[in-house]
Request: fold
Amino acid sequence: MLRSSTSKYLIAACVCVMVALGVAKGKDKASEQCNAVLVISAVTQSSSEGNGNIHVRSLSPWTWKFSTVENRIPSTIWEAECSSSHCSSPNNPSQPGAFTINSVPIYQQVLVLSHKESCYTASYQTVAVGCTCVWAKTAIN
Reply:
């Protein structure tokens, strides 16, 4: 999972790369050349330490899956996958709750850099970062 401080460094790095590559408004795209080097610090801090195994303790538990793309920064992104389509009962976690409460993913936009030839392209990728309980859709809602 991307940590918030890593995301901040990634955003700052993307802005620096975009400025360095002349992606600012008004630049003639035909004359652009990409030959910048991107350096990202390996030192990160986490503001989410202490949450432990929240993905297992949740009433809407999830597992982590990862995808790795060689020419992407970050190259590996961890994504949540809901363990069930229904939430657990808070009174008896081993029993599924009434089928009126569903487990759904929570999405976050993550800034990524894609490297092609000698250029980096910044874009956002939608990533599931956890799961939560919501009332099931009915004919009324």
